[in-house]
Design goal:
mainly beta, 44% strand, 17-stranded antiparallel beta sheet, 5 helices, single chain, Surface antigen-like protein
């Protein structure tokens, strides 16, 4: 056990710790099947528990993270001291591999800081990533989630620039049917893989105001721009992307989806990275507007519900978590690659086991349950097991909630920073149609 209280087995040999460190970093550097993640966009506000409650629920001195491991290797004779808040900056390699993106190499960095002197102020965070793949994908993003002193205002946004190869698995939930060849290809019941090359740019900014305890209202704008779109399959024009674009009035080589955002949100989570208790509810509208440059107008309604229940008073890290995310088209039309679907949630973490956009539709709903549990008493290594269902509408008559596609898996967690509950996550997940793979990320999926 990597428990600093158990000094008699902590270091019998420095070589043992070197082996453990190499194993930990092997997980970080190891090749993994990964969804291409977009920057998180949800307003993640923590409640502020009383100090006595914090001591009862979480004794940081008894926990062990990668910073402690590095200290024991570099300074094995230094006695453990009181827990101190370390730097809020974390940098890790961004390495992945799967058939959709090829082999990927890059770097990720996240940072956190509290602004002002008010102890109630929540942590402000920023993140950035740059990567390149063997299939010519170049992806860069920078995002922020800033709380002003006293949590009076919250500003969150992102900027993305990418040269992409976007997978195209068709519309809907892989049901068979259709009267025409175009209908059959668009539904793509066999989930035949295709891809579209192009450029993608996104700018999003939202401003929230706390109007009551744990209750926020916010407004913002979002610009999604795709240019120089080109089907990699040049043998036929009948591809799902082309068929949908022609039917709904979108050019095949470019489009813009620019709109206004209006959201209301309620949250009581105790931590935004790995919640032990509380809930998170968000509901909002997105209205794409032609006067803002959008190719077509469209109105969507989106809901996000998350609930966390601790199963143990002695160790609150035993948690069962529930998640439901849905998006529904009320009027107009949405471009093909902006339709809600697998891993199209704000954090791009849904549907582990499938690649981004594997299932999608004008109306889409996703549900997941996950059990989280410590493996070591000091929380250095923990585990998860999860199961999820997806459902979507299509253009051959399938309705929302008519057909569900399952997926699931399990994973390990390595405690990266115990002060922020930041975990390195390594999951193996699988689904239908032979979908499966490893997924590497920082912090929990939800």
């Amino acid at each position: 056990m990597l428990n600093r209280r158990e000094t008699h087995i902590r270091i019998n040999s420095r070589a043992l710790w070197r082996i453990l460190l190499l194993a930990a970093f092997a997980i970080i550097h190891g090749t993994a099947y990964s969804q291409v993640q977009a920057p998180a966009d949800t307003l993640k506000r923590d409640t502020v528990p009383a100090p006595a409650q914090i001591r009862a629920e979480e004794n940081l001195f008894e926990q062990f993270d990668l910073g402690d491991l590095a200290r024991y290797i570099l300074h094995p004779k230094r006695p453990p001291g009181p827990a101190r808040t370390r730097s809020g900056i974390i940098v890790i390699p961004n390495i992945a591999s799967n058939p959709s993106i090829g082999s990927q190499i890059g770097i990720k960095a996240v940072a956190g800081k509290k602004l002002g002197g008010d102890p109630r102020t929540l942590l402000s965070v920023a993140a950035t990533s740059a990567s390149i793949t063997t299939k010519g994908i170049i992806y860069f993003y920078i995002s922020h989630n800033v709380y002003t002193p006293g949590n009076k205002w919250n500003l969150q946004g992102s900027l993305v620039a990418a040269r992409t190869v976007t997978p195209d698995f068709g519309l809907g939930i892989a049901n068979e049917g259709g009267k025409s060849e175009a209908d059959i290809i668009l539904a793509n019941a066999a989930r035949k893989p295709r891809a579209v090359k192009g450029q993608f740019y996104n700018f999003r900014e939202k401003v929230y105001k706390e109007v009551s305890k744990n209750l926020f209202v916010g407004m913002g704008v979002s610009f999604d721009i795709r240019r120089r779109l080109e089907n990699k399959d040049t043998t036929t024009d009948l591809t799902p992307f082309n068929i949908y674009s022609d039917r709904h009035g979108f050019p095949r080589d470019h489009y813009m989806a620019n709109g206004l955002l209006l959201n209301i949100q309620y949250t009581t989570r105790d931590n935004q990275n790995r919640a032990y208790k509380g809930m998170y509810i968000d509901a909002g509208f997105r209205a794409n507007q032609t006067w803002m440059g959008s190719t077509r107008s469209g109105l969507q309604f989106t809901t996000d519900f998350r609930k966390y229940v601790s199963l143990s008073a002695r160790n609150p890290a035993h948690v069962i978590a529930f998640w439901n995310w849905g998006s529904y088209l009320l009027s107009g039309a949405i471009p093909y690659f902006e339709l809600p679907g697998t891993a199209k949630d704000p954090g791009s973490r849904s549907g582990r086991g499938y690649v981004v956009g594997y299932f999608k539709g004008e109306n889409y709903n996703y549900s997941e349950v996950e059990y989280r549990f410590p493996i070591l008493r000091n929380n250095f290594i923990s585990g998860v097991a999860f199961f999820h269902l997806q459902t979507a509408s299509d253009e051959i008559g399938s309705k929302l909630f008519q057909t569900f596609r399952p997926g699931g898996g399990a994973g390990l967690r390595i405690l990266f920073n115990k002060h922020t509950r930041t975990n390195l996550c390594l999951d193996y997940a699988w689904g239908q149609y032979g979908a499966r793979g490893f997924f590497l990320g920082l912090n929990e999926a939800f």
